Amino acid sequence: TLFRKTLAITGNQAVVIGGNFNAPHGTWGYRIETQKGRNLWLDAQQEGLMLVTDPSIPTRTGTSVCADTTPDLTFTKNILDTQWTNTQHDLGSDHAILEILVRAGPRKTKGRQLKIVDWDKFRNIREEADETTGDIEEWIEKLKRDVAAATQTVPPEAQLESVDNKLLHMWEAKEGLQRRWKKQRHNRTLRRRIAKLNRDIEQYAQQLCRQQWEEKCNDMDSQIGMAKTWSILRHLLNPDGTKSAERHNINRLIQTYQGTEQDFLKEIEKTYIPQATPVTHPDYTGLANGDLDNKIGEAEVRAALQKLNTKSAPGLDGITNKTLRNLDDESITKLTEYINKSWEAGQIPHQWKTAKIVLIPKSGKRLQITNLRPISLTSCVGKLMEHVVLERITTYLEDRDALPLTMIGFRRNLSTQDAMLQLKHQIIEDPGTSTKAILGLDLKKAFDSVTHATVLERVNELGLGKRTYDYVRNFLTGRKAKIMIGDLVSEEIEMGSAGTPQGSVLSPMLFNLALIGLPAKLQEIEGLNHTIYADDITLWVSNGSDGQIEETLQTAVETVERYLEGTGLACSAEKSELLLYRPTRRGRKPGNYQKDISHRQEIQLRTADGKTIPTVDRIRILGLLIEAKGNNGETLRRLDATVAQIMRLIKRIANKHSGMKEENTIRLIQAFVISRIVYVAPYLKWQVAEKIKLDCLIRKIFKLAIGLPICTSTEKLLQLGLHNTIDELIEAQRTAQYERLSKTRTGRHILERLGVAYHTQHGVKVDIPRETRETMIIPPMPKNMHPEHNKDRRETRAKEIQKKFGNDKDAVFVDAARYKRRRGFTAAVIDSDKRIKTCATIRTTSTETAEEVAIALAVAQTNATVIVSDSQMAVRNFANGRISPEALRILLAGCQASKRDTYITWTPAHALAEDSNNGAVHDAARGLTDRAAISSAAPAPSGRDGAVDEWEWEDRMITYTDITKHYRLQRGIFPPPHPKLTKKQSVEWRQLQTRTYPNPALSHLIYPDMYETDKCKHCESRATLEHILWECRGISAHNKYAASRDSLRARWEAALLSSALED
């Protein structure tokens, strides 16, 4: 029977069986018994099921000729505490709503008590504590007690349920009518009244639900910066990706597993824990390295503390990053001592090597054991030491150019998009007509399979030092983990001698070290290009015949497999992909074009085990989808689906009357739509029609966000200054990427290989020596400082700088000016008394170089500790550590540079009308060029025969935000709605600005069946908004107070250009 089969599957688990059985039997209150009822009763008795339904309370309401019955039954097994309740509510049906409350398993409190840590109190407790113990375990336990002492638990408010009075009265009325009807079952009037009341209750409940959701959306609009708001938005976008859904799926996976809980844990361990025999590794035999083996300084620990993510989950010891970030000075000193003890001894506490592995289902994959994602949570204190060691190793390897130029994973100022940029230039935009091939090699469980011996061998070969070697060796060996999945927890498991720890800070760098020799092997293959991003190896060939391409790629596969021998790594032919890029020819094709394709022999690649790597029609490289025919149809379809998904979300959280307002809705679009477009759009070759499609998608979702109809004029929409076109987004992303690549040797190598001269178009740059750079303190550049669109912010910034440093004897101001009749600039430095301290002439045509020389003069030839420049690019270049050779020569020639710390900051140029130090140095520099000094507030002359316009020398925009905002503000005419306007008023304001406010002409265009004509009833002209407001003479003739048409038009347009409430 069904009962027997169900119980055979569930075993000893708690079971609830319920439904409308419609099987009359005396046990559940029927006056008669049927064979079906007797069979059901017999099966329930034989299987030991318990009936929890109360037969005295019927679950189905009868009619005038039928009695009330109980066909809805609920049985349970292996449950001790079950509560069955008949709510007596039927929502218009003849069956009542039943509530079954089952208490099984460990009981959990509802919700989560809010705990607040008073970090000031915590630091005071730490300062008063006696830190005499030398044991890290005792120190951590004391730390946890101090956090608990400074933690306050906020008492939960009473769980009050809000009840709508009208809905409550309607339910009471229905219950009263039902009581009357049970006494008068033949009264049809009562039945009709009950049916009508059911419909009224349903309609009002839906209205009430909409009102409550609108209130929730209004709350989200005012709390857009809170994590809870974004959690709700992500849940609306992907309900299956929430934590509750993940827990449900994990529990479902456990319950459907054919075996015991211990068997389930053993299979999880076999799948996700590296099965390797522990190995004893040899001692370090490489070169001594005093730089890396030095004692760890407290400054290094403090720097690592500032970079910790305070939202990271703690490990088994319970210490969070937020706790570490709030340590007092003495505790940081003590913690540094503990770290140094481990560093010098080469031994890490076992708590730092014990992980808690939590498994969650992979998104978009079938729910099964092999499709889980392990997340390893280790000690935050141990990860702090990993941060320190990682910073040391990274700096050492980068300074000595030890990392290959084609290895771009997990490195400073490099990203996945750098691989996409190379594919774009060498494959997608290559003008050649021959076949091009892209091979994505997959490594089987790379991070879990690489042997510890391989990593340690690389550390030894690179000469990273004995202490680094001992630390890494101890870090990798003797590790343990506890698997936690659902409510199941395993015993501690030995991790073996393979695999880098999941979730570890140091693991990506260690994996890079394991593959550090592979790029050199691949570079020996002629015609092959490649990048390595962690375990993603991408190989491509951009020219040659099909036979040459096959030979080149097959050689590359064999080279990779030979290198991986003995490392524990292996190529997976099944998951690797080969794409043959043959773009569809446009225009007239030759007569034998189809014939050539039909006789073409396809390229085939095989791995060492004889398996063939599959050839695909599209390949995904680090998120970039490339199609074999050179079109972008699939990418467009996916972006279209994303836009449609976000549009549905916007419709749920905002409408023209309430919900999330314009500013926050646009933030949502930028986060979920524009970011996805910008990630892939700059690296594909778009046809004109495809770009038009992308622009349409962007305009469509922005129109919805601000409440405009789909037929809104594109010109009017652009004048709002809210969005960027696809060309602007591509330009901004490309410029920002080029600027980022210019900061590193690897990035500059990529640009040079691609023939991009961005990093040299403003002059050659060279590195500032590290010891000199460390003496320079340069704060981050302030945002939103455009000379035209942010004049108020610039003036405020200039006033602050003038007030802070204008009279400071240790501060100097610097500037440069161009010679009028010869190639060159002058650089000037003045002190707080506005006297020239030093100056120089530079033979260059670059304003950027001259501004850098001015700063270098101040550093090298003055005793100033504060240097103020009005060149953003010059200050940025010093912050990035790369300046012109002219500036570097002056910088290194000064003997004072290494004797003091120098604070270099930026002030806006031409921002103050009154006499200022920046204006004085500007005049001084101009005076040195044999030109008359002019006031900094006066407009600079322009023209080819005179002085060059000063605005031509302005700092160029190099960040994505600055460029996109510049385009938006440049064409933006209409201001945004005032913040105090309601959502409905804001939408109407935008409709008025774009001439889409409801009017007969627009309504007839959108709804021709509903609005049959667009004619004005006074003059038979087309009834547009302008016609109704001031053009129609018939309307003005009926209104003796009407203003003149010209006057009204001027006032109207002036009002739309102002966002002030009084206008």
UniProtKB/TrEMBL annotation:
**Gene Ontology MF term list:** catalytic activity; nucleic acid binding
Domain of life, per UniProt, equals: Eukaryota
Q: Where does the Reverse transcriptase domain start and stop, copy by copy?
A: 341-626
Which processes are annotated in GO (biological process)?
Answer: DNA biosynthetic process
Q: Which SUPFAM superfamilies match?
A: DNA/RNA polymerases, DNase I-like, Ribonuclease H-like
A Gene Ontology CC term for this entry? DNA polymerase complex
Write down the Pfam families for this protein, in alphabetical order: Exo_endo_phos_2, RVT_1
Name this polypeptide is given: Putative tick transposon
Q: What is the lineage of its organism?
A: Eukaryota, Metazoa, Ecdysozoa, Arthropoda, Chelicerata
